[in-house]
Amino acid sequence: MSRDFGKVAVLLGGSSAEREVSLKSGNAVHNALVQAGVDAHQFDPAHQPLHELMQGQFARVFIALHGRGGEDGTLQGALEFMGLPYTGSGVLGSALAMDKVRCKHLFQVAGLRTSPYVVVDKNSAYDSQAIMAQLGHVMVKPSHEGSSIGMAEAHTAQQLKQALQDAFQFDDQVLVEQWLSGREFTVSILADKALPVIEMRTPSGFYDYQAKYQSSTTEYFCPADISAEQTAQLQEMALHAFNLVGAKGWGRVDAMQGDDGEFYLLEVNTVPGMTEKSLVPMAAKAQGIEFSELVQRILEQTL
Which regions span the lipid bilayer (predicted)? Predict the structure, then answer.
């Protein structure tokens, strides 16, 4: 199959806050493709203008860019303009999934369970006391960042104020979400099918940047220790959310189980991590799909 792909650009790095993670993902993808006999080449848009993809006569693109400029629809639009097939979601699906606030709005309208929330704009007045009175213990998230960048929890109005100031360094719009203290899960999607559910457990309280990429104490359970009925419910919920935002090809949907035992959607990821500690490869392996086959399957979607 590898000879059918032609010359492949693996887009990695970029200039978003997730550059370091993207470099790891892109390196892993590139190495796997090369070992499989694919004519794959690394391409970092932070150092190479996109028009060089045309000059380099690339046939297709594997997107391993996380965050803005890679996962938000802007790159996808540029590649479509150039007529280059690319992996993953299109312009609209990428843009919507990257926007946590609009995702929450969509989940609510579609009747998909998600934690109560408030949206705070950088240049608008807000009352941190009123927000805490409404939501209690909260999680603060920049609307357009991934890899848990800029996220923080707050128990008091003063902590919320500081968390918002920190989050505004990354985004002009911030999501303040009621804290969920239950178990944390993720469902990987590959070719319109849900892979085995993974549960993540970390002593830090939530699955933040350190727990994802630096900690040796984070535990992963794949498949997750939940009933067959709960697994099916969570997979169906994840697929619904994935399709709702217009995502395609492959990705990941994160959720939590509240104290009430119900599942609550967190967000949709259209270019999830592909590092050695990443969740999509872990779920694929539990399904009998090794990393090399996984990256080829994702690339096959461009044919």
Answer: none
